[in-house]
Amino acid sequence: MNREQLVKQVKDKKNYLCVGLDTDITKIPKHLQSHPNAVFEFNKAIIDATKDVCVSYKINTAFYEAMGLKGWEALEQTVHYIPPTHFTIADAKRGDIGNTSAQYAKTFFEVYNFDAVTVAPYMGEDSIRPFLEYEDKWTIVLGLTSNKGSNDFEQLMVLSGAGEQQFLYEKVMQKVAAWGTPDNLMFVVGATKPEQLAEIRKAFPEHFFLVPGVGAQGGSLAEVSKAGLNKDGGILVNASRAIIYASDAETFATDGRIVASEYGQQMKLSLEGIF
Amino acid sequence: MNREQLVKQVKDKKNYLCVGLDTDITKIPKHLQSHPNAVFEFNKAIIDATKDVCVSYKINTAFYEAMGLKGWEALEQTVHYIPPTHFTIADAKRGDIGNTSAQYAKTFFEVYNFDAVTVAPYMGEDSIRPFLEYEDKWTIVLGLTSNKGSNDFEQLMVLSGAGEQQFLYEKVMQKVAAWGTPDNLMFVVGATKPEQLAEIRKAFPEHFFLVPGVGAQGGSLAEVSKAGLNKDGGILVNASRAIIYASDAETFATDGRIVASEYGQQMKLSLEGIF
Q1: Is A93 one of the annotated active-site residues of the chain?
Q2: N or C: which end of chain A has fewer CB within 10 A?
Q3: Is the ipTM of this complex over 0.90?
């Protein structure tokens, strides 16, 4: 899905919600746990119930990998089940030397045909370039993440020529932005830091940001929307646990839909006056 | 495998070679490519031919992931085939928020029972802790990597209180070292930078380092040995392509063994006077 198509989805639905399918077999409702294909059945129900109130799904690969082969089968079934109207993200946080990153890019863009994959920047340019080389695919590089550990390294001050200082995450985003374009590169910017999100939006007016941390992690949707929206929408706000584990009743999917719809209502309000 | 057991392997064999199984289906010898389980057959032959001239195997997960389900099957078969005497590393470069990193730790330490997994540090403490919580398992955190891109961020100067400056990779290693111990934590330090490896050894006299970059990437085994060895050996030097693709003849495994043995001879020399 290219930028034009993604923006059209956001504008048509007045929605920028990404539903995170961090599906943990031990946390899904009891009535599904004995199902031979429980994770896919769970995801299918969530997708059916939420697809008209979101524009994107994010699959957190860790939860599938932890199930071994059955997990990868469920991942594959899930990504095929997501309608082509929805932007698909492999939240995989990969990154390695060039020839290895090329294999990861092949995995997520060719083998599983995701629209986007998240990438960790530590190893630098040759670890990121192989992802950016795919046309109409998206590389989503970690900028400032939503977790407490973002203080440890991302928010260190680095020296940046002529005695100037900036945060490591700013330096990372600045350098990485030069390797891609707003048509094939997004950044992860956590919802738990709306003031910093506003600063980052000023520095990067065009790029889409994937914004995790609303819901279970405590970020405010209204605040991140105010800080992050641009003329194209420009943010995909992810919520995972708050939606998919809204309840553990047999009505879990419609209960999740209610939470997703509430986010959707807030998004519609936040978009008023933008388009 | 705990530290005592690992050090015993290194001392008994006078060897610290790690053979990297970066097995690319398109690069294995023609006579194997049509085999229904070509990657595992290839790995099996390499393991049979090299197990008495190395102490460790490193599986680069990217190459297996890029083959879809068949790749994960081959990975599982391979890790089960490696003798229990050999230290097994999942070179996966994972790392995410705490509850997600816990899933990755489960994947590599429980589902596939590797001794060690490589972890990317960008997201900080809560992204690394879940790996360190496993007893008798090892977390191998990226310090200074062997690739060109290590200049982009790892070698930035960061401010470190009272106006002092240090490289980002130094800061990363210093902080991470406080979260683990030399019994459960190693660092990746690239072979392409032996001078820096010597400095890093001074700062971290006890830790094991996983040293990639010898062979195809150009690092010198004699130089990294001189710079990196400590009283326990303390380094695992990885070579992948130089060994596994030593030739594409039917004799590829014994050809690989010859290269591995040459490394082993150099290692024996470098260990003279240490133990």
Answers
A1: yes
A2: C
A3: yes
